[in-house]
Amino acid sequence: MIRDNKILMTEINRIAETAGYLWEKGWAERNGGNISVNLTDCFTPQEIKMQPVESNLPLAIRAEHLKGHIFYVTGTGKRMRYVAREPWSNGALIRISPTGDSYDILAENPIRPTSELPSHLLMHDYLLAEGRQIRVVLHTHPTDIIGLTHCKPLLDSARLTRLLWSMIPECRIIVPRGLGIVGYEIPGTIELARATIEQLKHHDIIVWEKHGILAVGEDIIECFDAIDTLSKSAQIYFSARAAGFEPEGMTDEQLEGLVEPFCLPR
């Protein structure tokens, strides 16, 4: 039984925990947002070959570097609040085929993965090909970050990064590679995924104009924490503006002073 795998269950519980945080934050209205996590390392070679519940389900893309890899993916149309309570009933455990253009469903409940599965797999495939130790792709809808994208002058990576970094020191520390920005694209499309991959060359967190945010990383809680920190910075900015003044923000000298003690990239 899959649920007898303690390493796997630890990871599934962390996914469920994060899904609960997304709902509590108000970032996951209805079935908004999605999660995919590469869990291949949780399985023994024998377990990786387990019999599927459904097999040879076609993919719209070919994942050349993900052949045989196993992922937990939130289910199509499923709510994060229910993923938090019952991750097996609201998510899919899938294995990519040896050809990379189809997948099997492995868990006992044949839940279909999010319709954005091809987009997620394109990103995982790119990151693995680049040798980056990335297991998680997390997409959600933080209200305050989306609000900032409705200000056209802020749709600039350097400017938005500088603004959010300057609100609180932790933001510069926790999001050291800054933010990439992708202009508006129809949600769930391959075009959005490809534009995001271009930004992933330089960043671990990407803001989608008028839509949401995407974070990649080794650990799902760390991905959540990075978005949460950015949201805190946005809240500080909006609080100051609501009080009637433009926040001063940290100076360049103050931000530079964080680099050496925290070993941050420039």
End-to-end separation in angstroms reads 48 Å
The helical percent reads 25-40%
What oligomeric state do these chains adopt? single chain
Q: Structural class from helices and strands? A: alpha+beta
Name the strands of the widest sheet in spatial order.
Answer: 2-5-4-3-1-6-9-8-7
What can be said about the biggest beta sheet?
9 strands, mixed
Cα gyration radius (Å):
19 Å
Total domain modules: 2
The CATH architecture category of the largest domain equals 3-Layer(aba) Sandwich
CATH topology of the largest domain: L-fuculose-1-phosphate Aldolase
Unreliable spans are none
Task: Explain the overall architecture.
It is built from 10 helices and 9 strands. With 266 residues, it is an alpha+beta fold. The protein has a 9-stranded mixed sheet, with helices on both faces. Strand 7, helix 8 (190-200) and strand 8 (205-208) form a beta-alpha-beta unit.
